[in-house]
Amino acid sequence: MVLGMAEVKNVAIIGFGVMGSGIAQVFAQAGFIVYGMDIDEKALKQGLETIINGPFGLKRAIRKGLITEQQMQEILSRIEVTHDLTEAVKDADIIIEAVVEDLEIKKKVFTNIDAIAPPHAILASNTSSLSITALAAVTKRPEKVIGMHFFNPPQIMKLVEIVQGLQTSNETIELAKQIIIKIGKKPIVCKDIPGFIANRIGILAILEGIRLYEQSAASAEDIDIAMKLGYNWPMGPLELADFIGLDVLLKIAEALYKETGNPSYMPPTILKRMVEAGFLGRKTRKGFYKY
Q1: How many CB atoms lie within 10 A of CB 115?
Q2: What residues are labeled active site?
Q3: What's phi and psi for 50, nearest 5 deg?
Q4: CATH 1.10.1040.10 fits 198-282, yes or no
Q5: What residue spans in the chain does CATH classification 1.10.1040.10 cover?
Q6: What is the dihedral sign for C-alpha 35, 41, 43, 48?
Q7: Under CATH, which architecture does the 5-191 domain have?
Q8: What is the pLDDT of residues 41-93, one digit of tens each?
Q9: Neighbours of 184 (CB within 10 A)
Q10: Cα(146)–Cα(127) distance, rounded to whole angstroms?
C-alpha cells in the first residue's frame, strides 16, 4: 500500500546533526509532526539549539519578519526528540535517514528501521552519493526505499534530488515528489547512479579547485574569485568545500572514485592531509580559510 499525500503526517528523522535537524525544521515549518532520533544526547540538544538559534533557525526567521513568536512555538511543538528508534518510527509515514556517509552504517540503520517501522512507511536516505539500491536490498520493502538528497543548509537550499533505486516503485517516486513540493522545495528525479546529478558534476569542479590550490597555481581567494566572477557562482570551490565540510567532501570523493573509476574523483593529497589534521572547514573554524 502506498499512502496518498493527505495521509502523510508523521516524519521521523534518524540522525540529528546539521542535516538531520535542518530537515526536521523544514518539515515542522510545513506542518508535519517530526520525531528526531539520535543516539547522542549532545546531538539532540545541539540540533534543537540550531533549529532555534542557528544561522538559519527560527529566531532568525522572526527577525526577518517571516514568522511570529507564536508561530515559532507552534513549529517547535511539532518536533519531538528521542534516543529510542522504536519511539521515533512507530507512527512514521516517512522516515529519513541522515546519519554519517558510510554505506555499512546506513545499511545497519535501514535494517533496524525496516524491522520496526509501519508497513506503509517510506524509507528515505539523505545520502549524497551512496547506492539506494544497496540500502533497499537489506529491507523487505525495496519498492518503498528512496533517496531524498537535501542540500546544506536544508532550510535555505531549494533542491532535493529524489533517487530511484532499481526496485523503487513509481508510486513511491510520485508520493516523494508531492512531499517535497509540500515542504516548499523543488524535486528532481534521477536514477541510482554514483553521485546522482548535482554532486556528479559539482564535486569535479571542487576537486579541481583544490588541485589548483595544491599546485600553488593561485591563492585560495583568487581561485574562488575566478569562479564567482567568471562563472557567476555564489561561492567559490574552496569556500564551498569548507562549507560542505572537508571530511564529508573526502567521503563523497572516495565513494565516487570507487564507484566510477574516474581518476578525476581521486581525492587530492592535500584534502586527505587536512582532514587528518582536523581542518574540516567552517565547523572547525579552519580549512582553506580561517573562520
Answers
A1: 12
A2: 128, 149, 161, 199
A3: -65, -40
A4: yes
A5: 198-282
A6: positive
A7: 3-Layer(aba) Sandwich (3.40)
A8: 999 999 999 999 999 999 999 999 999 999 999 999 999 999 999 999 999 99
A9: 10
A10: 10
> Cα(125)–Cα(130) distance, rounded to whole angstroms?
9
31 phi-psi bin (left φ>0, alpha ψ -120 to 50, beta other) = left
Q: Three cell numbers at 184?
A: 516548499
Per-residue pLDDT tens for 201-240? Answer: 999 999 999 999 999 999 999 999 999 999 999 999 999 9
Give every CB contact of residue 262 below 8 A, 6+ residues apart in sequence.
256
Which phi and psi (to 5°) does residue 36 adopt? -100, 130
Angle CA 189–190–191, to nearest 5: 140
For the segment 163-191, the average pLDDT, to the nearest whole number, is 97
pLDDT at 2 over 80: no
